Amino acid sequence: MTRQASRVRLRVDPVACDAYGYCAELLPERISLDEWGYPVVDGTPVDGDLVALATRAAAECPRRAVLLETVITPHRR
Amino acid sequence: MSVALAPAERLLPTGPGNIAPRDLHAHIATHGVLNVPADDGAWSSRIFRAVAESGLLGRGGAGFPAAAKWDAIRRASQRPLVVVNAMEGEPASDKDHVLLSFAPHLVLDGAEVAAAVMGAAEIVVCVADDRSPAAASIEVAIAERAQIGGGVRRISVQRLPGRYVTGEESALVGWLNDGPARPRHRLDKSIPLRVGRRPALVHNAETLSQLGLIARHGPEWFRQVGSAEAPGTALVTVTGAVRSPGVIEVELGTPVAEILDRAGVLADLSAVLVGGYGGAWLDASQFGTGFAPGPLAEAGATYGVGVVVALPSTSCGIAETARLARFMAGESAGQCGPCVFGLPAIAGDLEQLAAGRGGDEVLDRIQSRATIVEGRGGCRHPDGAVRMIRSALTVFATDVGSHLRGHPCPGHVRPTVFTFPDAAPTKRGVA
Prior knowledge:
The complex is a heterodimer. Chain A is of the alpha+beta class. In chain A, 21% of the residues lie in helices and 21% in strands. Chain A contains 2 helices and 4 strands. Chain A has helices spanning 22-26, 50-60; strands at residues 8-12, 31-33, 39-41, 66-70. Chain B is 42% helix and 14% strand. The longest helix of chain B is centred in the middle third of the chain and has 18 residues, at 205-222. Chain B contains 15 helices and 10 strands. By secondary structure, chain B is α/β, with parallel strands linked by helices. Chain B has helices at residues 24-31, 41-54, 66-76, 95-102, 104-118, 132-148, 169-176, 205-222, 256-263, 293-298, 317-330, 337-354, 360-373, 381-395, 397-404; strands spanning 81-86, 122-128, 154-160, 194-195, 198-204, 233-240, 246-251, 269-274, 280-283, 307-312. In chain B, strand 4 (194-195) and strand 5 form a beta hairpin.
């Protein structure tokens, strides 16, 4: 059994979000802003070097509204 | 001699005439005694299975199987609290109000059955503060049962701010936890909400009434009417251009056209709004759609809380949609940016379209804003609004064309079939 590389998916808690917009600055690969400044998140799992950047983006959110979910991929035979 | 063939009464009387409120005596005379034993494992297992076999779907908007909620509460393995959701924040719906006013004991039967099976020691009935008659009726019923004695559970009535989203499950539970009645963002909805330490089994009032009947008559009886996927009867509130607006009981799957016939159509109809203000429009070619979650979803609509509003062809569907959109924008709990800013923006676009101002760019803006708002709220409030708005652009496509060319429908100036509860400051208890 090979170990799966760590993959994460970004989510935003829209109740907590106050449109600071830092997440879109820090991770434009996955996050853009709508016309009112709120994040629109691409839910495609993040892997490789982006994981560290996504973790950073989540940590920098003043409202703690950026959430990282670990993606559990079933082991492929 | 049709008396012998009359179907057994379910939620509402089947006979002619006005329905009279049922006190405990009349309730038992109609439905028979319901024995809810305390600590009877065999009985609890039987009812648990009966609910699963009945296929009962929740009647509060999401159409979630009642048995799935029970499973989730069981897995939480702590003593739960039973919450009766009779908030009915949907302005076009009156069914829970009717149930609480005319058959409060049926609702309480279901709540007691749920509490006994799940081992709950307390039942809380949640009613909107602008529904005083319903709250008063259920309080009288609770007092009647207390006089007879035997009830081991605490039952109370809570009055919450009567707004569109305050009956949303997580908003309701938020209020019961002494917080504001605002929806919460939930990552995993299969994890039960909690009031204090207790998992909350939240059921719509109509769902519990059905449960009171299933506990008496069994799942086979329940499934005798309705469809295989959506068994049983349901309460539907029919309003708009009909002779007898109000709540009727129909078999799930009854075609929309038949529901309209029963209420007596008064005019040539261009469309009906189904589900609720956050539901969807159906055009006349879709009136054959069965009124049940599956068929309505296939038609791009939703069962919602069992609402049918008949729109006469003299009304302007776009102007009515703009009014609905403005109302839905005002009913946002004010928490999530896409809902707070997106819904008023779309309502503004629709108002321009309704007035025949603005061209194709307005239509494009509505479409793109609908896409950007959808799925980005903490609750489904903006999604419902977006579904209703999108369906309007399809159902009233011909009118949209005329409006875009600067020729709005003659009927666009006045509101016709919808009512909008006033958002007086005293009722703004959400914040």
